[in-house]
Amino acid sequence: xxxxxxxxxxxxxxxxxxxxxxxxxxxxxxxxxxxxxxxxxxxxxxxxxxxxxxxxxxxxxxxxxxxxxxxxxxxxxxxxxxxxxxxxxxxxxxxxxxxxxxxxxxxxxxxxxxxxxxxxxxxxxxxxxxxxxxxxxxxxxxxxxxxxxxxxxxxxxxxxxxxxxxxxxxxxxxxxxxxxxxxxxxxxxxxxxxxxxxxxxxxxxxxxxxxxxxxxxxxxxxxxxxxxxxxxxxxxxxxxxxxxxxxxxxxxxxxxxxxxxxxxxxxxxxxxxxxxxxxxxxxxxxxxxxxxxxxxxxxxxxxxxxxxxxxxxxx
Length: 315
Description:
Elements: E1 3-9, H1 16-29, E2 34-40, H2 47-57, E3 61-66, H3 72-82, E4 87-92, H4 102-110, E5 116-120, H5 128-146, E6 158-161, H6 162-167, H7 178-184, E7 190-194, H8 210-228, H9 232-261, H10 270-295, E8 307-311
Parallel strand pairs: 1-2, 1-4, 2-3, 5-7
Antiparallel strand pairs: 3-8, 4-6, 5-6
Helix pairs in contact: 5-8, 9-10
């Protein structure tokens, strides 16, 4: 199979029929063998009913419905696990991503041998102050931290080798940082393509301003996991060593002052207690590092999501 199109959606009943027809036309015009994988993230509207109808009209549609709303990352995780195509395309269901970009994205993966191609919405049709400016700040920070030179980390329109999506684990809110996860997994041939961004035709955005706060917190989390997930003692141990060393230096200074310079009442000085505190804090960081080494990456049910219904084509 040439292409798997993975679409995570939540309350997008108005756009689904138009989106699938557009994708189908692009695939047929380019003679691609394909599948469309839709993950309904616990929609409250008629999205699932429409998907059921569409799947009867187009046997290339596979669909999975979460029992409740988990979020975009869990939806993509399930879609990636189910994808069979040589190239996996992700796109949003709101018609702001243009399916006409698919053939070129496919070509860049297959012919130019990129591991991941990320869309770049250079001209955006989003509100300037609530989305565009925060997005630029977010992307600048992500570039500096990750060393990956992309303009739009959070663009929903991306293309991957199948091997990439099978090698990464998307959880929490980590869909914003899939290029970083791919780089961590050893897929470093990452590039971007300028894509056409559409104005939202139906409904409203399902994301609020809190996503930018969560985005920066997730960036800190993934940076730590990328650099220290397999060696947390390097992080906690380094901080603990510096703190412990500072405490010892303070106590040596106070001891020398008392022995050689006959200064008294040392235990009444705030510096004495600060020195003790830094030694205790350093010791605790060492212990945290050892415990983190023991439990590192040990969660067995991080990606356990309840699928209420699913649609698979019959052979």
